[in-house]
Amino acid sequence: MYDYIKGKLTKITAKYIVVEAGGIGYIVNVANPYSFSDAVNQDIQIYLHLVVREDAQLLYGFHSEDEKSVFLHLISVSGIGPTTALAIIAVSDNQGLVRAIDNNDIKYLMKFPKIGKKTAQQMVLDLAGKFTAEPAESRKTQKESPSDHFALDEAIEALLALGYKASELKKIRSFFEGTDETTEAYIKSGLKMLMK
């Protein structure tokens, strides 16, 4: 129903961003809200997918058409809903995901939150060969200016929202204590550590 929205980015939370268009603030669920942190109060374009449920109508947003395509492929798999699909594409490099699916790498796929062996096998069965080309890197480069420990707290909150357990994130927090990075940088680095 919707292809994209153009408007002003007015708010960022751990789970979603708010884009104002035509005087209306739209809640858009995205994989890594803090990857939009350099665009606050600026006009942006977000690719959209609408999910209609009995109790809600939810917008999911993406940096690029490639990222949206990966999402749509993922939610076509039995056992993978929109929230889990967002958690999967939150990893900044989706090329690893595509290679794992095409190479039947079940162990790699099971590293994603809420993906068990059965669902991983279903991903391979349903999606192997479906990606004609590996998705291009769609994330914007992170800001060079570092922030304080508030950024680490935001990153941990965002990873929790993606479905990772607090026990898994303890090592992330202890590893980055004393460092000074942006929220987006912490999320990217944390996701890489969780996928090892």
TrEMBL record:
Q: Where does the UniProt entry say this protein principally localizes? A: cytoplasm
Could you tell me which InterPro entries the record lists for this protein? DNA_helicase_Holl-junc_RuvA_I, Hlx-hairpin-Hlx_DNA-bd_motif, NA-bd_OB-fold, RuvA, RuvA_2-like, RuvA_C, RuvA_C_sf
Enumerate the residue ranges of region (Domain III). 144-196
What region holds the Helix-hairpin-helix DNA-binding motif class domain? 72-91, 107-126
Q: Enumerate the transmembrane spans.
A: none
Q: Which CDD domains match?
A: UBA_RuvA_C
Q: Which Pfam families match?
A: HHH_5 (PF14520), RuvA_C (PF07499), RuvA_N (PF01330)
Entry keyword Transcription: no
Which subcellular locations apply to this protein?
Cytoplasm
What keywords sit in the KW lines?
A: ATP-binding, Cytoplasm, DNA damage, DNA recombination, DNA repair, DNA-binding, Helicase, Hydrolase, Nucleotide-binding
Q: Which GO terms describe its cellular component?
A: cytoplasm; Holliday junction helicase complex; Holliday junction resolvase complex
A GO biological process of this protein is: DNA repair
Q: How does it assemble?
A: Homotetramer. Forms an RuvA(8)-RuvB(12)-Holliday junction (HJ) complex. HJ DNA is sandwiched between 2 RuvA tetramers; dsDNA enters through RuvA and exits via RuvB. An RuvB hexamer assembles on each DNA strand where it exits the tetramer. Each RuvB hexamer is contacted by two RuvA subunits (via domain III) on 2 adjacent RuvB subunits; this complex drives branch migration. In the full resolvosome a probable DNA-RuvA(4)-RuvB(12)-RuvC(2) complex forms which resolves the HJ.
This molecule's function is given as: The RuvA-RuvB-RuvC complex processes Holliday junction (HJ) DNA during genetic recombination and DNA repair, while the RuvA-RuvB complex plays an important role in the rescue of blocked DNA replication forks via replication fork reversal (RFR). RuvA specifically binds to HJ cruciform DNA, conferring on it an open structure. The RuvB hexamer acts as an ATP-dependent pump, pulling dsDNA into and through the RuvAB complex. HJ branch migration allows RuvC to scan DNA until it finds its consensus sequence, where it cleaves and resolves the cruciform DNA.
Which family is this sequence assigned to?
Answer: Belongs to the RuvA family.
Q: Which HAMAP family match?
A: DNA_HJ_migration_RuvA
Protein name as catalogued: Holliday junction branch migration complex subunit RuvA
**Species whose genome carries this gene:** Streptococcus pantholopis
